[in-house]
Amino acid sequence: MLIGGVRTAVRWGVAGLATAQAGVIATLMIADRRRRRSRQHVAFPTMPPQTMPADETEVTVYTKGRDLYDDMIAAIDAAEHTVLLETYIWKADRTGQRFKRAVTAAAERGVAVYLVYDWFANLVVPQQFFNFDPRLNVLRHRPWTGLRRFPVRAPGLNHRKVLVVDGAIGFLGGYNIGSEYATRWRDTHMRLVGPAVADLENVFVDYWNQTRSKNHTTLAQPDQRQWDSPITLARNVPSLGVYPIRYMYLEAIDRARERIWLTHAYLIPDDDLVFALVEAVERGVDVRIIVPAESNHVVADWLSRVSYHALLSRGVRLFLYQNAMVHAKTATIDGVWSTIGTANIDRLSLVGNYEVNAEVLNADIAAMMEGIFTMDLGNCRELTLEEWEQRPLAAKVSEGIIAPLRPLL
Ligand SMILES: O=P(O)(O)OC[C@H](O)CO
């Protein structure tokens, strides 16, 4: 009798919470849609692409989509042997069409072109856009790919954004392909020219060979990989059960002695990451995080805010990027270590998706990344603990209601 009563109460409790969560989410989305209609596009600071050597590899960092896309297209147009292009989102707009024309032209002149795009992320894109010339080798990543194998592997979206041309030039970072990203989003991407490109090529080749269907050809492994590079690539590969990027962050944060400067589009850190950041503050590290004041995903923003109290009350400084979406997934620590990649600090990226981040151990590149962080800070407003504590009660209650959803993202 008592057990039956408890069961009924739990059932009603769960149903009530789910209903309240659905209500909060619907309200947020309606309010966000209204806000978006009146939102004006405002310019934000960017820098021209900056190039710096890291040992024998030349690293260029981009803060503006238009510059990046021009250089990616130029690389594809100059391709002589291979184009390996992997993107999470591929919009069918002018920019998407531009990339499609470039890879098609490359295939027409005899270049071997291999394309990967994510099925889920592009469901909203007209599917006829993905009818490619048959000379192109195309792999549409389906999240359940790993489930078809035995023993069953973890599912996951392919969230990577990678381009490798002729094994000689590689691109990696936060930019998907789309016109909005070219001018309206502040994101960070890198270009590699030199020995480290072999590792990026290997990232693509391994994925292709592990995931391809019987109709796809196998790709040859690059044979020029180095042991002692200042640039290493951390890959999350659900089908292999490996998620090193989360550990990469935990380890780098743990080593920090002076400063940890993070820029993240969707910051939904788990308790271990919050603990690591707070512990860094406690040993005197200057911990700053730039996040969008309002991202393109209102629910992600609200789930992100669930951790603000834990961060602000323990000395982590939060900076809200104004009037534009900051989509970068970067960090720079102690003027020594930096990362640029595709992984957000959320559960989907850190223990869910296929991702790749470059870790760069080089003081010049770190100085460059600090310069970019400082530039972005100029377009931010600091959120203080006092201000955060004074938000309306309705907001606090809403956060409490949706907080249990945090592990889903
Ligand atoms: O998943 P990301 O980080 O590439 O961001 C993509 C945008 O959220 C698309 O809506």
CATH homologous superfamily caption of the largest domain: Endonuclease Chain A
Structural class: alpha/beta
β-sheet strand percentage: 15-25%
Strand order of the largest sheet: 1-2-9-7-6-3-4-5
Shape: globular
Total beta strands: 18
Continuous helix count: 13
CATH class of the largest domain: Alpha Beta
CATH level 3 topology of the largest domain: Endonuclease, Chain A
Helix fraction bin: 25-40%
List low-confidence stretches.
Answer: none
Question: Strand count, sense and closure of the main sheet?
Answer: 8 strands, mixed
Number of domains: 2
Oligomer category: single chain
Structure description:
The structure is a single chain. The protein is of the alpha/beta class. It is 38% helix and 22% strand. The protein has 13 helices and 18 strands. The chain has helices at residues 2-38, 65-77, 94-108, 179-183, 197-211, 244-255, 271-282, 298-305, 308-312, 347-351, 363-377, 385-389, 393-402, and strands at 50-54, 57-62, 82-87, 112-118, 137-141, 162-165, 169-173, 185-186, 189-193, 231-236, 259-264, 286-292, 317-321, 325-326, 329-333, 337-341, 355-361, 380-383. Helix 2 (65-77) runs parallel beside helix 3 (94-108) and helix 6 (244-255) packs parallel to helix 7. The longest helix is centred in the first third of the chain and has 37 residues, at 2-38. The relative contact order is 0.14. The mean pLDDT is 94.
